[in-house]
């Protein structure tokens, strides 16, 4: 069949789940023979943390916007301007991975400058600001087709918002994330000040949605049994403002007697270079993914592919694809439950993760090639429906 000309739009150049999804999908679609362009907003000098195997176009923005609303508005505008410069009408598929790019496409659609667009909803946030809430709503309401990365969010979009969404899962790169150690692992451990005690890893920075405060409380309990344990909080390059929550977490760490820094009990890395992540997963003794809300939780698969056990929230979407053979469960609202699950994982107690059979079988279900093929099926169906509507 004819190759498609596809534009994938992502809101940031930083390593966030939706951005990773975009880049991996772009590479997989390109491998299928499609002509893919990734569009991302960037200030002068910025570049994507990882380059996909396709064309990349940066939508230029300035660094002077103060506040979240102004920042989002500037990115929507930058997307719109750049898409028109690159003849947005000429793409067979325009696919937004977030509310920012979705609003740019919704505006172009309202002006009759594009035929329509696809939107992937990874998850939805709660916004007190009415402008941000309206932007989030418009980005899925105006889309021709909404996709979700989990059945949980597909059902949510249908039942709560009346949107006929389809599920198209994530994948995991098992060539990039492996249990095989290399010299980089020791370098990362030295650089971050990981001292050999059991390492609890959390990925995604300090956020209320990531449940960092409850994890910190649980980790303090773990330290009473394993005094050499370290908590590593990696990443956190978000466009949203999490400063107030982060300050409360750091304040609580001090109250719990947890020191922060390299070689200390809590290591907060901030954004790391992309090449460091596989080594960090392998260096951890357990990944803690006790979020209160997730779209899918891609880092769970990345950790398991790296040979690292996972403690996951006993809520959807994790319950869609994990079970007792592939993770340790914890109630995200119960600090005692989180601490107990971490101790079980670190001590190898309870039902151990089955890395011989269950984990390989799980990883085999999620490939970027399969995700790309499913996307192409959706795209072609959308184009066929659009053609019938025009006739």
UniProtKB/TrEMBL annotation:
SUPFAM superfamilies: UDP-Glycosyltransferase/glycogen phosphorylase. Residues 16-176 form the Glycosyltransferase subfamily 4-like N-terminal domain. Pfam families: Glyco_transf_4, Glycos_transf_1. Keywords: Transferase. Residues 188-356 form the Glycosyl transferase family domain. One of its GO terms (molecular function) is transferase activity. InterPro entries: Glyco_trans_1, Glyco_trans_4-like_N, GlycosylTfrase_MSMEG0565, Glycosyltransferase_grp1. PANTHER family: SULFOQUINOVOSYL TRANSFERASE SQD2. NCBIfam families: MSMEG_0565_glyc. This is Glycosyl transferase family 1. The lineage of its organism: Bacteria, Pseudomonadati, Pseudomonadota, Betaproteobacteria, Burkholderiales.
């Amino acid at each position: 069949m004819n190759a498609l000309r596809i534009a994938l739009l992502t809101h940031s150049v930083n390593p966030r789940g939706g951005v990773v999804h975009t880049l991996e999908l772009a590479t997989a679609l390109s491998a299928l023979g499609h002509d893919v362009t990734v569009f991302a907003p960037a200030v002068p000098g910025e570049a994507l943390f990882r380059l996909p195997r396709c064309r990349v176009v940066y939508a230029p923005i300035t660094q002077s916007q103060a506040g979240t609303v102004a920042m989002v508005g500037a990115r929507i505008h930058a997307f719109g301007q750049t898409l028109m410069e690159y003849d947005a009408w000429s793409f067979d598929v325009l696919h937004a991975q977030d509310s920012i790019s979705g609003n740019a496409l919704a505006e172009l659609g309202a002006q009759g400058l594009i035929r329509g667009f696809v939107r992937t909803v990874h998850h939805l946030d709660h916004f007190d600001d009415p402008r941000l809430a309206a932007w989030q709503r418009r980005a899925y309401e105006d889309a021709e087709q909404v996709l979700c990365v989990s059945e949980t969010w597909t059902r949510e979009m249908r039942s709560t918002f009346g949107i006929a969404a389809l599920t198209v899962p994530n994948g995991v790169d098992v060539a990039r994330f492996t249990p095989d150690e290399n010299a980089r692992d020791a370098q990362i451990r030295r650089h971050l000040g990981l001292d050999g005690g059991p390492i609890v890893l959390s990925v995604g920075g300090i956020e209320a949605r990531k449940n960092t405060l409850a994890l910190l409380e649980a980790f303090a309990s773990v330290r009473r049994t394993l005094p050499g344990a370290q908590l590593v909080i990696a990443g956190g390059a978000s466009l949203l403002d999490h400063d107030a929550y982060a300050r409360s977490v750091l304040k609580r760490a001090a109250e719990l007697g947890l020191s922060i820094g390299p070689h200390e009990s809590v290591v907060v890395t901030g954004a790391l270079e992309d090449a460091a992540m596989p080594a960090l997963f392998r260096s951890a003794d357990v990944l803690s993914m006790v979020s209160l809300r997730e779209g899918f939780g891609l880092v769970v698969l990345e950790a398991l592919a790296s040979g690292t056990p996972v403690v996951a929230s006993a809520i959807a979407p994790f319950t869609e694809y994990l079970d007792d053979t592939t993770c340790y469960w914890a109630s995200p609202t119960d600090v005692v439950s989180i601490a107990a699950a971490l101790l079980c994982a670190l001590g190898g107690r309870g039902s151990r993760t089955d890395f011989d059979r269950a984990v390989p079988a799980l990883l085999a279900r999620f490939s970027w090639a399969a995700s790309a093929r499913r996307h192409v099926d959706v795209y072609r169906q959308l184009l066929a429906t659009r053609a019938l509507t025009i006739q």
